[in-house]
Write a structure and sequence with these properties.
The complex is a heterodimer of chains A (370) and B (421).
Chain A: E1 2-6, H1 7-18, E2 32-38, E3 41-47, E4 51-63, E5 65-70, H2 71-79, E6 85-90, E7 95-100, E8 103-108, E9 126-129, H3 130-140, E10 155-160, E11 164-170, E12 174-181, E13 191-196, H4 197-210, E14 215-220, E15 224-229, E16 232-237, H5 246-249, E17 256-261, H6 262-272, E18 282-288, E19 291-298, E20 302-309, E21 317-322, H7 323-332, E22 337-342, E23 349-353, E24 360-365, E25 368-369
Antiparallel strand pairs in A: 1-4, 1-6, 2-3, 2-5, 3-4, 4-16, 6-7, 7-8, 9-14, 10-11, 10-13, 11-12, 12-24, 14-15, 15-16, 17-22, 18-19, 18-21, 19-20, 22-23, 23-24
Helix pairs in contact in A: 1-2, 3-4, 6-7
Chain B: E1 9-14, H1 17-25, E2 34-36, E3 48-49, H2 51-54, H3 64-70, E4 75-77, H4 81-98, E5 101-106, E6 109-113, H5 118-121, H6 124-139, E7 143-148, H7 151-161, E8 166-168, H8 174-178, H9 191-199, H10 205-210, H11 213-220, H12 222-231, E9 253-263, H13 266-286, E10 290-300, E11 305-316, H14 319-333, E12 339-350, E13 354-355, H15 361-381
Parallel strand pairs in B: 2-4, 7-8
Antiparallel strand pairs in B: 1-6, 1-7, 2-3, 5-6, 9-12, 10-11, 10-12
The chains are: A alpha+beta (370), B alpha+beta (421).
Chain lengths: 370, 421
């Protein structure tokens, strides 16, 4: 195999595929990127067996063929080259030679024979604007559980209906649910799938590169989900298991609500949480008529308190929350005002964007007992 | 510089406690070599030995089989944990009548701070004498009492007073009292330290006292500094942090089990883990504490020992949640080889439950209610009256050990604010 590519094209595409490359070295070949040169392009493939990515860049192909090269080493090296053409040649012994201007390098590759095949993308199920998908991912991804043992919570539930997409993520303490109206004529009934966090993060990268107006073609088979944006294809194994019945968790009865300025609330919480227990991040909010007090204390370090004016005439209510959970929402919500809905210190609270919003966005947070 | 006021501490140490309690229930044991801990041919160690048995070189922590070799005609008894706990509590109650500041150091020894009790009980020696008499009268058990200006010297004095004596080390005479004693008499000085001290020519506490503090610090670090202080009769070193009678929260709670025979039976091992988890959870609830980190210990037949820990995403004191973490850790780390000992530890203890669960709050609440009912039943009818079903499969054999739960004074049950009501 022998081809010539533009350095910045190669760096961009290698960069996009880098997140998928296996970090652990249990299967050495998965640390490599598969290069396949044919026609007028070279196709780059990376996979960790859970997810896979296929990207390409225009190339002058002198001799079609394929080979694999350590992905990180390749990117780290090419990035340092001057911005011009790079000539790549992979020999029978799997060694790759890179020539760029006066630079010449040989990298030990591995046979492509042992590189796993990615499943083929089935017929597309829906077309989703990248901007819409990005918004939904950003509104939910932070609520995904970081605990590996809770594997059904290591991703988001995605539900496609003929007129809407719903995305839900929870770590068992808080839950983010968002729903966007969209015409998906091709979808019949409810299409449900669990999308792993890693795939969501990669989707954000691919969408950012393609722009908000790009269209994401979506498809799924029994085990995999496929997202194609232009020439780039991301695929991911579905998470297995039963996602919790989120509708049961969404509060139905919340007698009290206050509206707050997002940035003021966020700054207040961030300041106060400097004096919360580092591990639990516990802060308290005390909502009384006309005023909301946010405060915290660490017995041996200090204490901090902030007062925010609110319109409220219900009973005095004090609730403990994990400051991080509140801030996560305030960072993700695009609107300037937010509503805090609550019942009592032992029931789930809920935050929503203030005012009329296009997309449904509900964020349910369980309190802390302090 | 003003001298701090001289304190007066008693160290009360029950004489051959387990054996003496057994003798109350079976007077025929009196004066005979008795070994508490298990049967002679069993695995396990000696929990206590009568004075007659000690003459054969039997001491606590010695393997039962060794004890049998030393004295084949000794009487081996299993021991009755609940009896010791009951008598320990009786002693504790008596001590509390003499001073509000009482710390049980273990099931059979306690420190009493006599500060402010002079009007009520008179001078220290008189108070100690009356205490000695009262314990004897109300429990029919002998004890030995050391009186000194530091807990360290009081403890060493009670040891010198044994059996059934009271010894007062007058303030100012501590150094002279300690000087002729072997360094091993200092609590915390074991074989290793003893050997290291011998290497620098130290055999007696007096030799130690003559050494330069800086030299000891350079040789043994912090421990060396503590040793220098101890040699002068001071409560030096972390062991004596805090005052007598202060409620301390434990830093961790653990239970271990040594199998009678090494076992690779998965169901039995899991049942034992569950039983240990139940006990750990019970103690957490008694202290109104919650754990965030569950650790297990596995010791195989060849004594190779592994610990593995998992941090939970929320704090808990529920049997089921601790057991689930322990079981998962075990499943992921057990090699399949026969196990000699397993243990369950709760660490990262917190005073509040913290984050509530969104998905399982209902379930958690039901378990919490159930466990508080179970605790009440166990309080009335004993620890083994209620168990999770699977833990009943454990070949579990309650062994007495030095620091059982429910130890009065050690266990501020119901005393802390916000404790169980």
């Amino acid at each position: 195999m022998e081809f010539t590519v533009n350095k910045s094209d190669l760096v961009r595409e290698l960069g996009l595929s880098q997140g998928v490359v296996e970090k652990k070295t249990t299967i050495p070949i998965l640390s490599n990127v598969l290069l396949e040169a044919a026609g007028d392009s070279v196709v780059l493939t990376a996979t960790d067996l859970e997810s896979g990515i296929r990207v390409s860049c225009p190339a002058k192909v002198k001799k079609p063929g394929s080979g694999t090269i350590p992905a990180k080493k390749l990117l780290d090296y090419v990035r340092l080259l001057p911005d011009s053409d790079v000539q790549v040649k992979v020999q029978e012994n799997h060694w790759a030679t890179l020539v760029c201007g006066r630079s010449r390098t040989r990298i030990a590759g591995m046979s492509r024979e042992s590189y796993p095949d990615l499943p083929a993308m089935p017929e597309k199920l829906a077309e989703i604007p990248a901007g819409l998908l990005v918004g939904m991912i950003q509104r939910t991804i932070f609520a995904i559980s970081a605990e590996e043992s809770r594997f059904t919570l290591n991703g988001a539930l995605m539900i496609l209906k003929k007129d809407a997409i719903t995305m839900v993520a929870t770590d068992g303490h808080r839950l983010a649910m968002t729903e966007s109206k969209i015409d998906l004529a091709g979808v019949t009934g409810n299409y449900r799938a669990l999308l792993p966090r890693k795939a969501m993060a990669e989707l954000l990268k691919l969408s950012a590169e393609a722009g908000a107006d790009a269209i994401v073609e979506f498809a799924g088979d029994d085990n995999h989900l496929f997202f194609r944006i232009g020439d780039r294809l991301l695929l991911s194994r579905k998470l297995t298991g039963n996602f919790p019945d989120f509708e049961r968790v969404l509060p139905k009865d919340q007698p009290h609500a206050i509206t707050l300025n997002r940035d003021e609330l966020r700054s207040a919480i961030e300041r106060v949480s400097q004096f919360s227990d580092e591990r639990s991040r516990a802060i308290r909010v005390l909502i009384s008529p006309g005023e909301m007090k946010v405060y915290s204390s660490v017995s041996d370090t200090g204490e901090s308190e902030e007062n925010l004016p609110v319109q409220y005439d219900g009973p005095k209510t004090e609730i403990g929350f994990n400051a991080q959970y509140l801030v996560d929402f305030l960072r993700a919500v695009p609107q300037d005002t937010v509503g805090l809905h609550f019942k009592d210190p032992n029931s789930a609270g809920e935050m929503r964007p203030g005012g009329e919003t296009e997309a449904v966005y509900r964020y349910v947070i369980m309190p802390m007992r302090i | 510089m003003e001298r701090p006021p001289v304190k007066t501490y008693l160290h009360v140490d029950m004489d051959a406690f387990f054996v003496s309690v057994e003798e109350l229930f079976d007077p025929s044991l009196k004066g005979k070599p008795v070994v508490v801990g298990g049967r002679a041919n069993e695995r396990g160690v000696v929990s206590a030995a009568s004075y007659a048995a000690r003459k054969y070189g039997i001491h606590s922590a010695m393997p039962l089989r060794t004890a049998y070799q030393r004295c084949p005609h000794a009487i081996f008894v299993e021991g009755h944990r609940e009896r010791y706990t009951e008598y320990s509590r009786k002693v504790y109650d008596i001590l509390c009548r003499f001073s509000p500041r009482v710390s049980m150091a273990s099931i059979d020894e306690a420190y009493v701070d006599l500060e402010g009790t002079r009007k009520l009980h008179g001078p220290a020696f008189q108070a100690a004498h009356r205490l000695h008499e009262t314990i004897r009268a109300e429990t029919r058990l002998n004890c030995s009492i050391g009186i000194a200006s530091s807990r360290l010297v009081a403890k060493i004095a009670s040891d010198q007073a044994k059996p059934n004596g009271v010894l007062w080390v007058l303030p100012g005479t501590e150094v002279r009292f300690l000087a002729p004693l072997d360094v091993r008499k200092i609590p915390g000085v074991g074989k290793v330290t003893e050997q290291n001290l011998r290497a620098v020519g130290v055999r007696k506490v007096g030799d130690l006292a003559r050494l330069d503090e800086g030299f000891l610090a350079s040789k043994f670090g912090k421990w060396g500094l503590a040793l220098a202080g101890k040699a002068l009769g001071l409560d030096a070193g972390g062991w004596f942090d805090g005052e007598v009678g202060e409620a301390h929260d434990p830093k961790s709670v653990s239970h271990e089990h040594t199998f009678r025979e090494d076992t690779a039976d998965l169901a039995g091992l899991q049942a034992t883990l569950l039983r240990l988890s139940e006990k750990v959870a019970r103690r957490l609830r008694d202290h109104s504490l919650f754990t965030r980190t569950v650790q297990i210990k596995i010791r195989y037949s060849d004594f190779s020992t592994f610990t593995r820990a998992r941090t939970l995403d929320h704090a808990t004191h529920l049997d089921t949640e601790i057991a689930a973490a322990a079981k998962e850790l075990f499943g992921a780390n057990w090699t399949g080889q026969p196990v000699r000992l397993i243990g369950v530890y709760a660490q990262g203890l917190e005073h509040s439950e913290g984050q509530m669960s969104l998905l399982e709050e209902e379930k958690t609440r039901r378990w919490r209610d159930a466990m508080s009912a179970v605790d009440r039943i166990r309080d009335r009818f004993g620890e083994s009256s209620v168990s999770l079903a699977r833990s009943l499969q454990a070949d579990y054999h309650e062994r007495v050990h030095e620091n059982p739960e429910n130890l009065p004074g050690k266990e501020p049950r119901g005393k802390e604010p916000g404790g169980k009501s």
